[in-house]
Automatic annotation (TrEMBL):
Cofactor annotation: FAD
Name of this protein: Predicted flavoprotein CzcO associated with the cation diffusion facilitator CzcD
InterPro entries assigned to the protein according to its UniProt record, in alphabetical order: AB_hydrolase_3, AB_hydrolase_fold, FAD-binding_Monooxygenases, FAD/NAD-bd_sf, Flavin_mOase-like
Domain Alpha/beta hydrolase fold-3: 623-827
Family label: Belongs to the FAD-binding monooxygenase family.
Ranges in a coiled coil: none
Organism, as annotated: Raineyella antarctica
UniProt keyword GTP-binding present: no
This protein's UniProt keywords: FAD, Flavoprotein, Monooxygenase, NADP, Oxidoreductase
Gene3D superfamilies: alpha/beta hydrolase (3.40.50.1820), FAD/NAD(P)-binding domain (3.50.50.60)
A Gene Ontology molecular function term of the record: NADP binding
């Protein structure tokens, strides 16, 4: 028995392990030991040697990028390399970086336990080794645990049984009667090859697949030279692409073009091959069923053209799940295999496999198919399987298997709360297979290396994701998947749906590589947001973590940074207006509602309003909703989408005015206009189906201040109001609160922005005592019932919550709801920030209860969402 101590234990010697060993051992000087159950390097490419195994991303992209010399020197013989060549490449890399001396091959990890006394991981292997290390890095892969065969009698089969996912030998199938179960990527590649040599091939198909041409060809020297000449640029473009490939021809919507144009695009992408059809044709294929239908039908047509027997063609055409919701297999002559007399397609959905018998397979109707060889191409216990197989126990004796009983819980798909210093390269809920794997792996290995370095520089020993950060990540991951058609596929492994009893949760992050990488950048740039650090396990639970900003908002902060946005003052008046206007690009599609009418309530071009009437029978209650934008920016267009959303969810008419903006019009122009729009609404809304006796007002940010000030004025001058909705409102331009100081920078609206907006609107500093601007100095008694929505990481949070206390003190029915992890303006970003829906629902519930159903009970304390 070997008992040794190391700095880092790495699992797996595939792409991930090879780079991890090189990085941590050679570049960082750490003591690294790696375990792999295989007898040599290669990972997936070691285990999957079935005939036809081949990569589905161009090899020039599906390869390491960290070593410029390697990528210049290596020559791929084909556009999409076959398994032997990729394994040769990985062997070359293993030699080049001398990784084998750090790997214990033929050794399987059977137990992994966090030792709280010594702040390290203890790993036990099937050889009886016990080794320890401060850091545990799994490079065990996503598709490395084959699904356990679920056919009774499989062990009784008298012939040879082979598993595509564990196929190491060279098997001669010539002249044999071969059966293959499964038509995923593995089955499809194998069928194409085996059909050429087998005496008879029986394909047992349950769910047909949408396979498209890979369009492979021998490397063209001119193309290779051109790629190598701009390799750095290609890698950069890859990392900025959803799938990690440098494609740039995607068009926004399959539904926005004519049928002819659509066909041209599909034909072109089919011809180009690879994932061009899937990811480089139309951007809404994975989001809109209607768009998806067009792609699915195109694939079905191609199948019907290629398969001679119409009944077989029909069976091969998928019809009951959307294209792309299973990883689209890429093929070479797959459909032509069915034109051979020796290939037989067996529909095991209609006539299921009853059991495996010694001489072959027996179907439910009693048919027996005699076989010499049975191949199981039945897939993998994807993403979670490889980690769960290691029997991992974290802090406090918590078992990963228990934590994940209802699906994976991770932060960034890389770490887990309760499992200190444990990292899963391309783990569940990371982009993994939806991001060109070698690049996804390099990003993760680098992130882990940087984290270790960060800790070493600060004398820290323990790093752990917080529960809040993890919950936010799980929410983001599930919410993004729900925006796609993925959950509509009955058996996709992306959702764990291929394994009986496995929880139905999305296993891959579907936000794309650029969004994911922005979030990771934001996490690292801000002292590892969402992580707690300590010098011992005992302290990690009480350590103060860096704020866990909602991932979607972290991505937006980084995108703004990447676009060179350095604040509203630098952007100037026009730049600020353009920046706020660009929020519309982060909104969900505008809902269809009953009616939308534009009107004017004054003679200035900015004194306009838009009336949003919901579906159904009026008269409807009415809310005037005043946009934000620091009195300088914002417009009806920015609130069009939220206004439609509120109108349809709450069943109220929303009237959204614009108003004269600063600096052209200073205080009190915007205040006067907001009130004038309210008056206009009270006088005129009946003509649009509104009931002015059930009237409310609301607004966000500076619009919240304008709404509150109008409500205060209306108390004396009318109209009578029944509801006040304030979303992240400005309460006092010179408030001095902890949230203004703590979240002064890096959270969408910065303190400097507030100051600049104030300087644009106010005529002079003396004005800030005016109770129309210093709402906290106003008499608040008699205001209508109020809901205030605040965000944890908003400079304006505290003044808004203090204002709620003042309202309550003045006897106003007031609720406050604070949204953890959120920032200013998230309310407007329904398309980009999944948790925006929580705020919308809270606002709509309030309007419905205050205006449609009558008064609600007041709540005194701050409720966190
Ligand atoms: P898969 O996509 O999960 O396909 C498994 C197949 O087995 C499905 O057709 C499934 O049918 C069938 N099956 C499973 N259990 C069955 C049962 N009890 N009775 C009948 N049929 C059964 O697995 P895979 O083909 O190994 O591919 C997995 C992933 O590996 C791919 O999606 C891809 O990411 C990766 N891969 C990539 C390549 C490449 O091109 N580079 C090649 C191979 C694999 P149902 O759909 O009805 O469940």
């Amino acid at each position: 028995m070997d008992t040794t101590q190391h700095d880092v234990i790495v699992i797996g010697a595939g792409f991930a392990g090879i780079y991890a060993i090189h990085k941590y051992r050679d570049q960082m000087g750490l003591d690294v030991v790696c375990f792999d159950a295989a007898e040599d390097v290669g990972g997936t490419w070691y285990w999957n040697r079935y005939p036809g195994a081949r990569v589905d991303i161009e090899s020039v992209h599906y390869s390491f990028s960290f070593d410029p010399e390697l990528q210049q020197e290596w020559h791929w013989t084909e556009k999409f390399a076959a398994q032997p060549e990729i394994l040769r490449y990985l062997n070359h890399c293993a030699d080049r970086y001398d990784v084998r001396r750090s790997v214990r091959f033929g050794t399987r990890v059977v137990e992994v336990t966090w030792d709280e006394q010594n702040d390290h991981w203890r790993v036990t292997t099937d050889k009886g080794d016990v080794v320890t290390a401060r850091y545990f890095v799994s490079g065990a892969g996503t598709l490395s645990v084959p699904k356990t065969p679920d056919f009774p009698g499989v062990e009784d089969f008298a012939g040879q049984t082979l598993l595509t996912g564990n196929w190491r030998e060279d098997v001669d199938l010539a002249g044999k009667r071969v059966g293959i179960i499964g038509v995923g990527s593995s089955g499809i590649q194998a069928i194409s090859e085996i059909s050429k040599v087998a005496d008879a091939l029986y394909v047992f198909q349950r769910t047909p697949n949408y396979a498209t041409p890979i369009a492979n060809y021998p490397t063209d020297p001119a193309e290779e030279a051109a790629d190598k000449a701009r390799y750095a640029e290609l890698r950069e473009a890859s990392r900025n692409h959803f799938l990690g490939v440098p494609y740039s021809d995607v068009q926004p919507s399959a539904l926005a073009v004519s049928a002819e144009e659509r066909r041209e695009v599909f034909e072109d992408r089919f011809k180009k091959g690879g994932f061009r059809f899937f990811i480089d044709s139309f951007g809404d294929i994975l989001f809109s069923q209607e768009a998806n239908d067009t792609a699915a039908e195109y694939v079905r047509e191609s199948i019907r053209k290629r398969v001679q027997d119409p009944r077989t063609a029909d069976l091969l055409c998928p019809t009951d799940y959307p294209y792309g919701t299973k990883r689209p297999p890429l093929e070479i002559d797959y459909y032509e295999a069915y034109n051979r007399e020796s290939t037989h397609l067996v529909d095991v959905k209609a006539n299921p496999i009853q059991r495996v018998i010694p001489q072959g397979v027996r179907l439910a109707d009693g048919t027996e198919v005699e076989l010499d060889v049975l191949i199981l191409a039945t897939g993998f216990d994807a993403c979670t399987g490889p980690l769960l197989a290691m029997n991992i126990t974290g802090r406090g004796g918590v078992r990963l298997a228990d934590e994940w009983a209802d699906g994976p819980q991770t932060y960034l798909g890389l770490t887990m709360a309760g499992f200190p210093n444990l990292f899963a390269i391309t783990g569940p809920q990371s982009p993994s297979v939806l991001y060109n794997m070698p690049l996804a792996i390099e990003d993760h290995v680098d992130f882990i290396g940087d984290s270790i370095q960060y800790m070493r520089e600060r004398g820290l020993t323990v790093m752990e994701a917080t529960a809040q950060a993890q919950d936010q990540w799980v929410y983001e991951t599930n919410a993004l998947a729900d925006m796609t058609l993925l959950p509509d596929s009955a058996s996709t492994w992306y959702m764990g749906a291929n394994i009986p009893g496995k929880p139905r949760r999305v296993l891959v992050y579907v936000g794309g590589a650029p969004r994911y990488r922005s979030i990771c950048d934001n996490v690292q740039r801000n002292d590892y947001r969402g992580f707690a650090f300590a010098t011992s396990t005992a302290e990690v639970e009480t350590a103060t973590p860096s704020p866990a900003l909602d991932p979607a908002l972290a991505a937006i902060v980084e995108i703004l940074r990447g676009q060179g946005f350095t604040g509203f003052e630098d952007a100037g008046v026009e730049g600020s207006r353009a920046a706020v206007e660009s929020f519309t690009a982060m909104q969900a599609p505008r809902k269809e509602i009953g009616r939308v009418v534009d009107e004017a309530y004054g003679t200035d071009p900015e004194q306009k309003l838009r009336i949003f009437v919901p579906e159904g029978e009026g008269p409807f209650p009415v809310v005037v909703y005043v946009h934000g934008g620091g009195f300088v920016a914002g417009s009806i267009e920015v609130v069009d989408e939220p206004a439609r959303d509120l109108a349809s969810r709450a069943g109220v008419i929303v009237v959204a005015p614009t108003y004269r903006r600063a600096p052209e019009h200073r205080f009190p122009a915007a205040h006067d206009d907001a009130y004038a729009a309210l008056e206009w609404t009270a006088d005129n809304v009946a003509a649009y189906g509104g009931d002015p006796s059930r009237l409310g007002i609301g607004g966000d940010s500076a619009g919240g201040m304008l709404a509150a000030a109008a409500a205060i004025r209306a108390r004396q001058e009318g109209p009578e109001l029944s509801a006040l909705l304030l979303v992240n409102p400005l309460v006092n331009p010179v408030a001095d609160t902890p949230s203004r100081r703590e979240y002064a920078e890096g959270y969408i609206i910065e303190l400097a922005d507030l100051q600049w907006f104030g300087s644009q609107y106010l005529n002079g500093p003396e004005e800030v005592t005016d109770p129309r601007l210093a709402l906290d100095a106003a008499d608040l008694a008699g205001l209508p019932q109020t809901l205030i929505l605040t965000s944890e990481y908003d400079t304006l949070r505290d003044e808004a919550e203090d204002f709620a206390t003042q309202l309550l003190g003045a006897g106003v029915e007031t609720n406050v709801q604070r949204f953890d992890g959120m920032t200013h303006d998230a309310f407007l970003m329904s398309g980009a920030v999944p948790r925006c829906i929580e705020q919308r629902l809270a606002a709509a519930d309030f309007l419905r209860s205050a205006l449609v159903e009558g008064a609600q009970e007041p709540e005194v304390e701050v409720v966190t969402a």
